[in-house]
Amino acid sequence: MAVRRIVAIVLPQLACELVKQRGPVSPSGKAPLAVIIGGDEERRAALAAGAEREPQAPAAVIDVVDDEARRYGVRPGQKVVEAAALVAHLAIHRVTFAEIDAALGRVAEVALGLGATAAIQLGEQGGSRAGASRSGASRASRAGERAASEARSPWGDGPYDTVWLDITGASHLVGGEEALLDELGERVAALGHRARLAIADGPRLAQALARFGALDGGRGDDALIAPPGKGAQAIGPLPVQALPVEREVASFLVRLGVLRVEDLARLPRAQVAARLGPRTTEVMELLAGRDPVPLLPFEVPRLIEEEVLFDEPVENAESLLFVLRGMTSRIASRLSARGEACGRLNVAIAYDRSIARLRLGDREDDAALLLEDEERGPSLRFHVDMPVPLSDAGDLLRPIKAKLERIELAAPAVGVHLIASRIARARQVQLDLSRDRSVDPDSLPALLAELSAEIGAERVGVLEIADAHRPEARSRLVPVADEAAAARSSAAARARAAAERAAAEQGAGAEGAEQPAPEPARLLAQPIPLGRVGRGAIVAVDRHLYAIERLSFVMRIDAVEWWTPTPASRDYARAWLVSGAPSGRAPRLGELRPSRDGASSSSCGEAWIYVDRATGEAFLQGWCE
Q1: Is-above-0.70 flag for pTM?
Q2: 3-state SS, residue 576
Q3: Residues 226, 230, 234, CA angle at the centre, nearest 5°?
Q4: Strands of 232-317, DSSP E
Q5: Distant-in-sequence, close-in-space partners of 31: CB < 8 Å, separation ≥ 6
Q6: CA nearest neighbour of 523 among 609, 613, 611
Q7: Do 387 and 359 contact (CB within 8 A), yes or no?
Q8: What is the mean pLDDT of residues 441-453?
Q9: Is residue 615 predicted with pLDDT exceeding 70?
Q10: Which residue has the higher pLDDT, 339 or 602?
């Protein structure tokens, strides 16, 4: 039986990193940072009420500080008023439990590509269903039941900074455990997080090793590996705080001179058990190198959602694009781990409630995009469709940027919500070893997505040959639904064209065979009425007068689409339009200078016209070469 191997991914600065992903933490951007964890409902209520920044109570307790604040002496557990007395320019922000859960879920999602099971919570030892049910409940929903000391405790319910991954029997697929940790570290770094990684025989052993283990300077990364069956020896040099004991118990052991785990393991078992409190069984198991605690599997959501709430309102598109760049990067990492791509991005920009209502009467052009939501208040919502599902971060951002640059915000934004929907399997492109360089298969789909956002999805597609008698109906623009549909359409068009060429060549060889009718080089969007025409008639095109030098009959279509209310009966012809040019001279292609509406303003040209047989009126439909 294979030895159980668990990776612990500890994110020591997770709360600070989430704050920095929203934007600058202060006007200068270099202030030390302290974070308070919790207050989900209070923070949303303050931002929804239109507060420029959520007020922090002086008695609130700091949970996490960054390295800059630690240099000034700020420590977790201090009150806000005490920390502000030490550092006058300290930036204090709040991170909700929902944001913590969402960030850990993202890490678990990208880690699943390297292991069988990922978890952000642990079950009860022994697999108790009651304990698993309590641990599996959303931490955000139980935020009000938690005391502030629990959120800062290294064990129990907090801190919430660890993701576990079961890699039993899977590490050899990527070249071993060291290679797996390197790959896992790169994936977590792509999400914008700094992680400490460790592998051991159980989740608590790996977590203790990742949190408190001394890093090997030779490796150059934040990773530690305990050999199989050597968990007790691996955690021996760690401080006693690495064990799941309360702070008071750890402080008592330190005062007794028991500084390390191996010092505690050498003491008599009966005396140690009397001092460890309610977690005696767990601690004794860890001292023996056994860690049978099960993982609660993380369920990957079908839709990928990213949400960022701003402490200070944002009023320009540049700041929103900065935030959206990070959001699309995280979505791309999650899609890559799944092996999937998305076909639509739904964007919701939450407005400041009071200012949006004040300005709504003067901004009628935004009324169609402005929607009221009970939770987020007024928001600007739009979506971007991808002609082909994409998964690259840059490709996902480009159509959003093209769309957002054409929209003016009606009010300051207090948050952004991004949803990736229409999830599909990503295309697998075979490596090309026959050439020095290969073409990026996503370059054209990314360009189509950007054009769709810029000019509209209904104006972007591929031309498809249609079976029709009228020249203007022989091609139509169809959307690029997917690569397979485009390939089928292209194959059908090539087959039809090959059949027509073969028929033309066969007919040309037959004596007296009818030659195919010539086709116009360019058709106008709307035919231009010319009235009744004949040789020598004067017609007006684009405010210019032309004389028809000669007409050449091409073909006749009679009662085409007779089942419709407007059947077509037409005579098609080529007409020489002359205006001041010598008679009989052939027109040159350079003389055809189309105007804005498609008509020609040249002095001589060959036009494609048709005569409606029902009315006798002629129409200019295009130009010939």
Answers
A1: no
A2: strand
A3: 55
A4: 304-314
A5: 25, 68, 89, 90, 91
A6: 609
A7: no
A8: 76
A9: yes
A10: 339
